[in-house]
Amino acid sequence: MKNRTIGSFVAEDFRTAAIFNKYGIDFCCKGGRTIEEVCEKKSINREELINDLNRLLAQQAEGNIDFRHWPLDLLADYIEKTHHRYVEEKIPALLQFLNKLSRVHGERHPELLEINELFIGCAAELSQHLKKEELVLFPFIREMVSSTISGQNLETPHFGTVQNPVSMMMHEHDGEGERFRKIAKLSNNYTPPADACNTYKVTYAMLKEFEEDLHKHIHLENNILFPSAIALEQKIE
């Protein structure tokens, strides 16, 4: 177990993400690390972590979705219609709330100004990122699946191999993961101060939910969709 990657645990059973979060382990952007590697680097008690994982995995998960066995075109559709739509719906409200909080409370809580700037950057980058996936990467994944089913030849895409856009998307995932680590630290892990108004509390709760959804989103792509797409392309060739 100690030589299994973090991402493989979460790909098999997403409930394990809560355990990795508990230990401060990044399971989405850095899911390629093994239990052994991450415990050594972060000075985590390996046996305690493994025991926690074993206890969880021994419990029967009702309705636990195994995305690893989904057709890739269906998984791409799911990511787009669930996580892409979530990002597009939440960004405008968060931008509005953070701008208001910065104006009203920024003098007393200067960390809000930095959080606001970080999220403005996140909104701009994520909006471009989603379009690249929707207009370039996901259509090619669907074409590969269709080619496999029909037996027709697959035209070489303008980007050469699927590994090129996948590498770009994973690099951008790393950037957003790092951005949200800064937001979490600045906000004391989304804990509103004692004098926080309702808007303050709601905004921090929304930011926390946004980060959690982003983790699930990145996990599905980095640990399941992308490696499967690379494997499918190699199989077609």
TrEMBL record:
Main localization, broad class: cytoplasm
Domain of life: Bacteria
Keyword Cell cycle: no
Pfam hit, one: ScdA_N
Keywords, in A-Z order: Cytoplasm, Iron, Metal-binding
Domain Hemerythrin-like: start-end pairs: 81-227
NCBIfam families the UniProt entry points to: FeS_repair_RIC
Name used for this protein in its record: Iron-sulfur cluster repair di-iron protein
Organism encoding this protein: Myroides pelagicus
UniProt gene name: ric
